[in-house]
Structure formats: C-alpha cells, structure tokens
Design a protein that fits this description.
This protein is α/β, with parallel strands linked by helices. It has helices at residues 9-12, 41-51, 100-105, 131-148, 160-163, 171-180, 216-225, 253-262, 275-283, 320-327, 356-367, and strands spanning 6-7, 15-20, 23-27, 31-34, 55-59, 62-66, 71-73, 81-83, 86-88, 113-114, 120-122, 154-158, 188-191, 197-199, 202-205, 209-210, 213-214, 236-240, 265-268, 285-291, 307-313, 331-337.
C-alpha cells in the first residue's frame, strides 16, 4: 500500500436510499457585528469576504447506504472503516496519519471477528465524545433512520454509552438524548474497540453537513421529534457559562457576566444539565451569549430569529455555530479578543479576554434588532 486510498460512501455503496433530498438554500448575511479585524486584519478580511456574506448554498442529499459485505471497523477507538485495502473517507479522522506504513498497521494489530447478521447502522465516529459532533452530526443520523425505518436498525455506538455512569463524562448525556427520541437501549449495538470487527450487513448515513451548512431537514427533524416532557424555560436572555477545562477560557468572565446580568441575562452552565433541561433552556431563550464551543450546539433548538453573541480568541476560525444561527434565521454578533499574555503559542483553544466596550457595542446592535 504505497499511497493512502480513500473512498467515499457513495463510491462503495451496494445500495442507497435518499433520506433527505438535495436542497439549495439562499443565505443572508446574519453577522451584525464582528471585530476580528481589530485583532487579526487578514483573518478578519477572510471572514468578511468568505463567511459573513450572502450566498447560495448547495446542500447535498443525505443517503442511507449499505456497505459491501465484509466491511471492517478497525479497532482502536476511532471507528475507521476498511473495505479491502480502501478506507471510507467519512470515517477517517482528519488528524490521523495517512502514510502507507500507518495504514498498513491498521487492521493488523487485531484479528477481524465476524458479528451477527442483523442490520447495523454505523453511527460512532471520531469525535463522538464531543457534544457538538454528537448533537449536530451523529444523533441526526439515528433520528432520520428511525423516521423512515422505525425499529429496523441497531445502532453501532461505543460500549460506554450504555455503561458509563460518570456525570462529568459525555455518555450519560448521550444516553439521555437517545431517550428523548424514543431510541431504546436494546437498539444500541455496543461496540468494543479491542478488535477489528467484520460486518456483513453494515449501513451508514452520509454526511449531515455540506457546503458549511447542516441539512435543514435534519435540523427540522431534531426539533420536531424531540420529546423532553417539559415546556420551554421562560429565560429570555441566556448566558452560557463555559465549563472549566474545556479550553477557550474567557479570563475576564466576571466583568463580562456583570454587564450581561445588568442587561437581563441569566447565567447557566448548560453543559452540566440533563439533556431535557438543556433543550428547554435554549427553546426559551431569544438572546444567547456564549463562548464558541459545544454547548452552543443546542442553538438547534432555539426559537426562530434568536439573537446570538459569541466570544472567542481572534485566532479561532469557525463556521459551525454561525451555520446554526443561519438555520434559525437568527442574528449573530461575533466578539473576539486577544489570547492571554503568557500563552506559549496562540491557538484556537487559548484563554482570552474581550473588550468590555466591544461587548457593549455588540449588545446594542443585537438589542436594536426587533
């Protein structure tokens, strides 16, 4: 294997079924405030020229794809899929080594074991333990499969989804989210990553995101199908407190929080709440403040027209959360600040601070939108 060989799900499909059709989407520029150029001139120009613009997005169809018999999920915890000498591109981590030697080692450390012949749908993927990847990219695949084929599939997920009870780990929240969509525990195929595993009836759902947008049909179904057993919270203005240890720590948060509180914001560490409470919080918030990060993926559940103020280091390039704002026909103020002094190298997870006058200016812009 001299060179890495990567194939798309479409290329290896034995059969495929369209779950959501291809859909063009006309996008307005909903970024009402952005100060990136104050800190990183060229990066600010890029955002103004390429991201915060009106454009037409071409959203790919979402398909249910059957993979060839004998497809192998590689052990090791990254859920790479190997078909002969080929690797499925959608399942290959962007950070993994793609040299011939590295790929030859995959599949040789463990012996491939056959499994049952039930219809199994692969959901697990690199990043599954991150809330943003789970809620915005992976859970929608289960919701769509259940919508069109209720009860047909067992879903391949990490064993810990059903077994890990540690409240500060993601698996409990993942389990709660499955329950909110009426996916019973017996529908989960517990995948242990100790060995390579060969499947004869393996299915996958193609990417939910394309052209820097979530398929609007997938987002609609997440909102339509969720059952949380409680009404939306009457919170109005929500300030999402970022959890310690998550990176991108806002170092002047106490001063920021005082300004937000004076403008009617309630601070909630939404990442510590059960899934149903997270959904209710965002359903009831017409204005949201938060540091760019996974907690803001819950914007999927926000009311149409939500106004969102985000904070991040000036070095952090993001289109994911802006796309969620666009999906809700919302409005965004993007407030950036410098990485903290003493950082060995400024990067997207650096601690940072934002200017308080810039915060106030962004608030005025959002408050002026009816």
């Amino acid at each position: 294997m001299e060179q890495a060989r990567f194939v798309s799900l479409d290329e290896v499909a034995v059969s495929s079924e369209t779950l959501l059709p291809q859909e063009p989407v006309s996008i307005e520029n909903r970024a009402r405030y952005c100060n990136i150029a104050n800190h990183k001139v060229e990066f600010g120009k890029h955002m103004a020229r390429d991201v915060y613009i009106a454009r037409r997005a071409e959203i790919d169809a979402v398909k249910l794809i059957r993979l060839p018999p004998g497809s192998v999920i590689c052990g090791g915890g990254e859920y790479m899929v190997r078909i002969g000498d080929d690797f499925v591109a959608e399942q290959f981590p962007p950070y993994a080594e793609r040299s011939g030697d590295a790929l030859r080692r995959l599949g040789q450390a463990w012996r491939a074991q056959p499994t049952e012949r039930a219809d199994l749908l692969l959901v697990a993927r690199h990043g599954i333990a991150t809330w943003g990847h789970w809620l915005g990219e992976l859970l929608p695949k289960i919701v769509l499969a259940e919508k069109l084929h209720p009860g047909r599939f067992r879903y391949i997920l990490p064993r810990d989804v059903l077994r890990d009870e540690r409240p500060d780990w993601p698996w409990v929240k993942l389990r709660q989210s499955l329950a909110a969509y009426a996916v019973p525990p017996e529908s989960i195929f517990e995948f242990g990553s100790e060995v390579d595993t060969r499947f004869d009836n393996l299915y996958a759902v193609s990417e939910i995101w394309s052209d820097h947008m979530m398929h609007p049909g997938a987002a609609d179904w997440l909102r339509h199908a969720v059952r949380i057993g409680r009404p939306a919270a009457e919170i109005g203005r929500l300030a999402v407190a970022r959890l310690a240890g998550s990176g991108r720590s806002l170092e002047n948060w106490p001063e920021v929080e005082r300004i937000l509180a004076a403008r009617g914001f309630t601070t909630v560490a939404t990442g510590t709440l059960p899934f149903a409470e997270q959904v209710a919080m965002f359903q009831g918030a017409d204005m949201v403040f938060g540091v760019l990060g996974s907690d803001l993926t819950n914007l999927i559940f926000s009311p149409r027209g939500v106004r969102v103020m985000t904070a991040a280091p000036a070095t952090f390039g993001d289109r994911f959360f802006y796309a969620l704002v666009l999906d809700r026909d919302g409005h965004m103020a993007d407030v950036r600040g410098p990485a903290s002094e003493g950082s060995a190298r400024a990067h997207f997870k650096s601690s940072f601070s934002i200017g308080l006058d810039q915060l106030r200016n962004a608030l005025l812009v959002l408050e002026g939108i009816s």
